[in-house]
Amino acid sequence: MAPLRVLCIHGYRQNGSSFREKTGALRKLLKKQLELVYITAPLTVQTAATEEVPNVENNSVPAPGGNEEPRGWWFSDIQARSFNAQQRCEASLGLDESISAVREAVKAQGPFDGVLGFSQGAAFVAMLCSLQEQKLELELDFRFSILVAGFRSACEEHQKFYDAPLQIPSLHVFGLEDRVIPDSMSRDLLPSFQDPQVLIHSGGHFVPAAAAHRQTYQDFLKQFQ
User: What range(s) does the Serine hydrolase domain occupy (predicted)?
Assistant: First the structure.
């Protein structure tokens, strides 16, 4: 049985290569089920000592050997070109550019069976799934989504993505000790999906891939194989 091809959408301040490093355990855990393909967001994040979330806590510093800069999928603060998941804003910056980047990646590297996102990337995945179901992005044809530490965007212009519950099968993964995206924020995203499956772990802000999690991932994925 050929593995399912999954497009991987990294978190804020990560990039494709650093996210690949951080999901090594997941690739190993599900190597028979999944082929993970990583892309990098188009927006460069300015690194400064005064960023909202310390890099160490955010677990999003580029991994050793990651030669790309820290990137993001949109900025909630247009002036500062920065992002905070809890920042309420009217408008954001860069989302259209990021949607174009995904569209091009699907054209060049697809087709993909599913899409996986982490943190800001998971919030972005929910938006991509909404665009797909509204038939606003005809290149997108994901059969399932995996959202790790996802959340509802607090930006006013993004509320259109949450109008109707999404039909796409979804697995929502979040940690009870997550201090970057508290589990309450991930739970707030669940009603945006028709029949969300959930994997809760006891840890923090990372993609869990212990042996104890294998069965939940496999049970979710087997319906697409």
Answer: 3-216
